[in-house]
Amino acid sequence: MSNKVMHGGAVHKERSSVAVIAALVCGTILLIGLQIAATREGLVGPIWGLIREYGATPALWSVPWAGLAVAMVGLSNRRRTIALSAALVVDIVVLGIRLIIGNRLALGSGPLIVLTVLTVYAAVRWSDHERVAALRACALGFLLIVAAKVAATFLPLTALTRPMVLDEYTKVADHALGNPSWLVFQVVDALGPVGNGIIHVVYNELPLATMVVAFWQLRNIRLGPEYWPSHYLVRTFLVMAMIGPLFYFVFPLVGPVYAFSTEGNGYQVSDIWPHIMPTIDVNPVEIPFDDETPRNCMPSMHTAWALAIFVHSRGGPRWLRYLGAFWLVGTLTATLGFGYHYGVDLLAGAFLFLCVESALRDPDRGWGWFRIRLVVSFAVLMLVLMWAVRYLAVQMAQYAQIAGPLLVATMAAAVVAFYATFYARPDSTLGIWGRRPVEATSDRDTV
């Protein structure tokens, strides 16, 4: 190996270490800040909420189980069997205790307890690569769980700190896209109770699909450091979980099912969703809402996360690609068809994903102009979209024949630019524009 290659590898490793340390510092500051803010508002907060779930009632059973499943990639098959069996036994025992003392039915403490024990045991008893692989995998599992706690803390904070919402502006702007929430509801309604149940599972159990894709990407890391992929789904998920919810405070929305139907519990503007198509209101205003409904629409994080699952599943076998496509379609259908989001929310979520993924994908290529132009462009497009919905909503609705195609064309151009930079053949026109390295392999070979 030449000195140049060795030096390049050392520089990359040093940069990666600095990035990891910086991420840990920023994450710790965010956790502490969120906990302080939550405590001041009388909320549980991410840190205390995580501690409580060791014995109290977990909010979601799928999140700790997904975290433990991701941690399993660092263990041998025998140790995976032992850990998963122990987690199941502990979960059942804790569930029995909850039922005896009259607590509600809930699962999730078992995997969290086993994940903690596994981390301590690996750090104390195992050595060399065996310990490193296990600890890194356990860290990813914990990070997934903590990220869920962070996101869950943001939601009640938005309701308490943003009493006014911008749903009237967003409803008007969505005329440019044909009011998709009203339209997609017709599709969901036609699916019947079985179809509705499936879509509800897809929407609510996003961690399960994340677990499957992440496990496949990281399945061989216990074999050696060289089997760690340079980029994987968990990284994208974590970054979006830390950044995305901040925009809830900037652009608070509750969604059409709450703002324009009886689900708003008296705070709704009207009762038109989903059966009466809205007309253009030339005087939209901010509307007051309750202090319980989360302002978690703009951007649509479910859209961003489902896109992440879809893109990262492209490098897997056929069944994984089908799973990614199914989860993306099901999630988009649920976000609109259940009235949780407007069409422009989904566009903003897509821009958020493209921005974060462009910043993280192919880290070995460094930070050239090819990457900077994507990250900056996608960030600007998301901010411009939010600004236009707030200040140009009426114009977007009145000139829907221009605004609608413009929004769709902009998103299409963004997807093409992303594809050209990270997927196109290096010798193709798109690949040359995207400055794809000549030695680049297909996505199927790299993730």
Provide an overview of this structure:
The chain has 21 helices and two strands. By secondary structure, the chain is mainly α. Strands 1-2 form a two-stranded antiparallel ribbon. Helix 3 runs antiparallel to helix 6, helix 11 (233-243) crosses helix 16 (343-360) and helix 16 packs antiparallel against helix 17. The chain is globular.
Looking at this protein, list some descriptive labels.
447 residues, mainly alpha, disordered C terminus, two-stranded antiparallel sheet
The CA-CA distance between the termini, in Å, is: 25 Å
Average pLDDT, rounded to a whole number, is 87
Q: Give the number of helices.
A: 21
Strand content: under 5%
Helix content, binned percent: 55-70%
Q: Helix/strand/pairing class, anyone?
A: mainly alpha
Low-confidence stretches: 1-13, 442-447
Major sheet: 2 strands, antiparallel
The radius of gyration computed from the alpha-carbon positions, rounded to a whole number of angstroms, is 23 Å
The SSE string, one letter per element, is HHHHHHEHHHHHHHEHHHHHHHH
Give me the count of strands: 2
Name the shape in a single word: globular
With strands numbered from the N-terminus, the spatial order across the biggest sheet is 1-2
